[in-house]
Specification:
Strand content: 5-15%
Number of helices: 14
Distance between the termini: 37 Å
Largest sheet: 5 strands, mixed
Number of strands: 12
Strand order of the largest sheet: 1-10-8-9-2
Helix content: 40-55%
Structural class: alpha+beta
Number of domains: 2
């Protein structure tokens, strides 16, 4: 995946079922590091903002610069954005209007990927209230998205040639063929968790048939989870948002360690259909392009669903509503796969070992 300037001449494709209206939960303002352009960083560093803030120490910089990446981000306090008010609303938005917010904040949870056949738009599946969206909410505002993209520095882009694995390249038409197969498997709603788990197994079975790196038979099928757990506890990530993410994700990984890749105990019902919504946004939106290879993006979807289901079981057992528990657990799992720990853990051998393990389950 590369990032290139937005091409406004491209036709727009909107993911099926992409309806959205902000529930003002403040989840995105607590879970992510907001990346800023230099003009945004300068504007949001002004000292006069401080009189509007709540619970932000006077000596805490509002904007920080990562010297390694030369990237500006909004600072955080108590695992929330410095501009998040006590009413869960953005102080910048309330004071100066929507257009004063960073582009990254205005864009969320809109997702866009440029491809040879157009601009694919979808919902960022890390939104923590996505489970509540339905057809009563407005569809994605494509024109508003175009306006934001025109002001963005770059957009995730895939070209005519796409890496399937580090060693194998496929053309865009072949990429679409695989996406269509996975969509036929994963975007079918299921009212039972057994049905959802069966579809995850079927998708893994299909990915196993794709050409890939041969692996040592001795590699454990849970190696990706062991690698995730190790990296999460290596304390290499200083950002508070990542530390909080890793802490929330522990229960899901520990559940898999204790129970294996099985369907955890949860009541059947409507929340299980949410997995199909997630897969629809991921696949229709070409979100696999956010990863270093197409297969990594597809395996990350399977991994996020598995982690999300096991994380939901742990949260449900603790008394949380099943629908919100599933939404939060999957959102955390998606973020975990995109985090430094996830990128390191999703090696080619670990991916293959996971797929092989799930294929063996399908053969039982």
């Amino acid at each position: 995946m590369q990032r290139t300037p937005y091409d406004p001449s491209l036709p727009v494709h909107v993911a099926g079922g992409a309806h959205y209206a902000c529930r003002m939960c403040g989840g995105g303002c607590r879970s992510y590091d907001v990346l800023l352009t230099e003009p945004e960083a300068n504007r949001l560093s002004y000292s006069w903002w401080r009189s509007l803030l709540n619970g932000v120490p006077d000596d805490l910089p509002l904007v920080v610069l990562d010297s390694a990446s030369d990237q500006y981000t909004l600072n955080r306090v108590d695992d929330r954005c410095v501009f998040l008010d006590t009413d869960n609303l953005c102080i910048v938005h309330k004071t100066a209007g929507l257009d004063a917010k960073p582009i990254a904040c205005q864009f969320f949870p809109f997702q866009a990927v440029q491809t040879p056949d157009g601009l694919h738009t979808s919902l960022n599946v890390s939104c923590r209230r996505l489970v509540e969206m339905n057809e009563a909410d407005p569809p994605l505002d494509v024109e508003a998205g175009r306006s934001l993209l025109a002001r963005a520095q770059a957009v995730a882009t895939i070209g005519e040639s796409i890496p399937l694995t580090p060693e194998i390249t496929i053309d865009f038409a072949t990429f679409n063929t695989h996406q269509t197969h996975l969509s036929a498997i994963l975007t079918v709603p299921e009212d039972s968790w057994a049905g959802v788990f069966d579809r995850i197994i079927m998708a893994a079975d299909y990915l196993w048939t794709l050409p890939g790196t041969s692996i040592d038979p001795s590699i454990d099928g849970l190696s990706v989870f062991h690698a995730l757990y190790k990296r999460m506890h290596a304390k290499i990530d200083s950002r508070s948002s990542l530390r909080a993410l890793y802490h929330r994700s522990e229960a899901a990984i520990e559940s898999i360690f204790n129970n294996g890749l099985t369907q955890p105990s949860m009541p059947d019902g409507a929340p299980s259909t949410f997995c199909a919504q997630i897969a629809r946004q991921w696949l229709d939106g070409d979100q696999a392009a956010l990863y270093r290879t197409a297969r990594t993006g597809w395996v990350a979807l399977i991994l996020a669903l598995l982690l999300g289901i096991h994380g939901t079981a742990a949260q449900f057992a603790a008394g949380q509503r099943a629908d919100h528990a599933l939404n939060e657990a999957i959102a955390d799992s998606v973020d975990l796969c995109l985090s430094p720990a996830g990128q390191i853990a999703l090696t080619e051998p670990a991916q293959q070992a996971l797929l092989r393990n799930l294929k063996r389950i399908s053969e039982l």
